[in-house]
Specification:
Length: 411
């Protein structure tokens, strides 16, 4: 038992990086608590662990009795005289016993108490150590795959990358190495569990901080980030130093910095977007400045129309609409991508809707009143009507109908 205990102390200290004396103290206290039950309540017990001699012994005082009642701190006179030939009934004899002499059942109880205390100590160390790393990125290897996620070996304990914190396009097998964001430290029935994430925007932020010194030093700041994990991320950046280009700092020489981040994300697109307090400029940057011809902001509400060339329309929208959706989230604007002619048609329709028929060229006042009384109050009403429908109105002939239709078309 002594040799095994000392081996446990040495091995546990090495594997769990817990101080040897701390572990020894835990074992000492656990043994004293368990072994005390074999002694009288008033008897003081001391357990000593001798690493040099590979010994674990219990020290206590025993009272000399004529007949033992079963407590180990009682010694019959015959045995006492072997230690001190002058011993008499009622005398106190100091005893020193190997822990193994306390009996198999007692040792098993002590062993379980030790295991429980060591687990508690390990749990506390994990909690303290990894609370410091909460919000940081750590590395580890996939140990195994379980029903609720990947178990990751992160050194002195195992962490969980739960299903809900995984990227749907990423798959791992045992032995694969990965980086992840320490999302939280959770208390479970089995102890403390480190929870990881590769899905949260904070993971991207930390990758940028680790890869880009200007961000780590707060010269360049991340103003906002939006992400569709596994597919695309947009990161809006600005500089606190007018002499430092935030975009260039993030991209790096020959794109090496942003490429390292993309590699870690297994090829996920990462767009660095220049932040601007000017909404039109920020929207242009968010969609892709090389794609946008013009940006029109609505007079009311957060709505904008993006004008692009035909060759750029699909690119501006993005595969599955992801580019424009993320740009909308980044700018907090509802965005619509249009060709020049589509925009002109929409603008013309808006003009027709808000303009009374009296604004149409070639509409005499008399004809205008007739049309108005017939329910055609706006230029758009005329534009949507057919010539045949207009000629059904008394006082409107074919030529007049064709003329005002033509005027409404090009209004």
């Amino acid at each position: 038992m002594a040799f095994n205990l000392i081996s446990i102390i040495e091995e546990f200290s090495r594997l769990k990086q817990i101080d040897r004396e701390k572990i020894a103290e835990i074992i000492r206290e656990s043994l004293e608590s368990t072994l005390q039950k074999k002694l009288s309540e008033e008897t003081e017990l001391i357990v000593e662990i001798n690493f040099n001699e590979n010994e674990v012994v219990a020290k206590f005082d025993a009272v000399v009795v004529e007949e033992s009642t079963g407590f180990l701190d009682e010694i019959i006179l015959e045995e006492a005289k072997k230690i001190n030939h002058e011993a008499e009934i009622g005398d106190i004899i100091p005893l020193e016993m190997p822990v193994s002499d306390f009996g198999r059942k007692t040792i098993q109880s002590a062993r379980q108490a030790i295991i429980n205390r060591l687990r508690e100590s390990e749990t506390e160390k994990v909690k303290v150590d990894y609370e410091k790393q909460k919000g940081e990125i750590i590395s580890g290897a996939v140990k195994r795959v379980e029903y609720n996620g990947y178990i990751i070996d992160i050194g002195f304990t195992d962490a969980l990358l739960p299903t809900e914190e995984q990227v749907e396009t990423e798959f791992y097998k045992a032995g694969d190495f990965l980086k992840a964001y320490v999302e939280s430290i959770r208390q479970t029935k089995n102890g403390v569990r480190v929870i990881l994430s590769r899905k949260r925007p904070e993971f991207i932020i930390k990758l940028f901080e680790n890869e880009i010194p200007e961000i780590a030093d707060s010269i360049v700041v991340i103003k906002k980030i939006v992400r569709e994990p596994g597919f695309r991320t947009k990161v809006a950046v600005a500089s606190n130093d007018e002499n430092v280009d935030p975009y260039g700092s993030c991209i790096g020489p020959k794109g090496i910095r942003i490429e390292e981040i993309r590699k870690e994300l297994h090829g996920e697109k990462v767009d660095v977007v220049l932040w601007s307090d000017n909404s039109e400029e920020f929207i242009r940057n968010a969609v892709g400045p090389e794609l946008v011809k013009r940006v029109y902001l609505a007079d009311k509400g957060r709505f904008a129309q993006i004008i692009v060339n035909e060759d750029n329309k699909n690119i501006a929208i993005g595969k599955g609409g992801k580019n424009i959706k993320l740009a909308a989230k980044l700018t907090n604007y509802k965005l619509d991508v249009l060709l020049e002619e589509e925009y002109e048609e929409i603008a013309a329709n808006e003009r027709r809707i808000t303009s009374p028929i009296f604004d149409l060229d070639g509409v005499a006042e008399k004809v205008g009143k007739i049309l108005h009384e017939a329910g055609y109050t706006s230029v758009q009403d005329i534009h949507l009507a057919t010539v045949k429908e207009l000629t059904h109105i008394e006082g409107v002939g074919v030529k007049t109908a064709e003329k005002i239709k033509e005027s409404a078309k090009y209004f």
